[in-house]
Amino acid sequence: MTTLTTAPGCPAPDARTTPATRVTPQGAAWLASASAHPRSTLALWQARPAAPAVLPCGTAFDVVNVPLVLGRRVLGLLRAEGPGSGPVAAHRGRLLLFAAPGTAHRLPALLAWEEWGGSRTAPAPLCHGRGDAVSVPPLAAVPGPSRWLVAPDTRTPWLPGPEALLWAFVRAARHTGPTTDLGISIFPSADPDANVYDVSKRR
After folding, report:
1. Which residue has the higher pLDDT, 113 or 168?
2. Which of 138, 131, 39, 147 is nearest to 94 (CA)?
3. Which residues pair with 94 in a beta bridge?
4. CA distance 50 to 143
């Protein structure tokens, strides 16, 4: 079974070109642990490995949901300069970053402290935690709008917390030019006469 590594220093997978990866049995057990009925969830997946599923957040994981390009930049920073990433999925034009439980509650407050608002070029992430549910890609590596870029491959995957994700989002917002690691800029070319502000400081 093929999975992508999540070691720091590796460039982020491109959701537009990277093939889907397959969830291992250990990774499937971890995903199923989020369900109220893990054994029946696993049995359903074994019968239909190409079918997507809906899982609750807040116990095994939270999910931070961002546009593909911004998500790839954040993922690249986590892996190249930060602590690494947990499982990551592409779903209908969005990137789903699996995070430590509690992240969905804490990250919006941290971003608000950084004055991350609607006027920013980089949009605020959608955070899914306790009381929410998300669609996850099939266990099998099948083509389509929903697939694993970094598939779960262990019963106890490491998951980034709110502080690591805050750091990556702020770094992504500061970046205004191309990088060799990521290969994509989420911003248009800078105006040489434009004023530049440090987005990490409060006004």
Report:
1. 168
2. 147
3. 67, 91
4. 10
Phi, psi of 98 (to 5 degrees): -80, 130
pLDDT tens profile 34-66: 999 999 999 999 899 888 889 999 999 999 999
CB 101 within 8 A of CB 30: no
Using an 8 Å Cβ cutoff, are 127 and 81 in contact? no
Question: What phi and psi values does residue 64 have, to the nearest 5 degrees?
Answer: -110, 120
pLDDT tens for 156-185 read 999 999 999 999 998 887 764 443 333 333
Under 8 Å between Cβ of 14 and 150: no
Cα dihedral angle (45, 50, 56, 61), rounded to 10 degrees? 90
* pLDDT computed for residue 82 by the predictor: 87
Which one-letter amino acid corresponds to residue 189? S
**pTM greater than 0.70:** yes
Nearest of 86, 74, 177, 85 to residue 116 by alpha carbon: 74
Measured CA to CA in angstroms, residue 19 lies from 53, 88, 100, 103, 183 at distances of 20, 13, 25, 28, 18
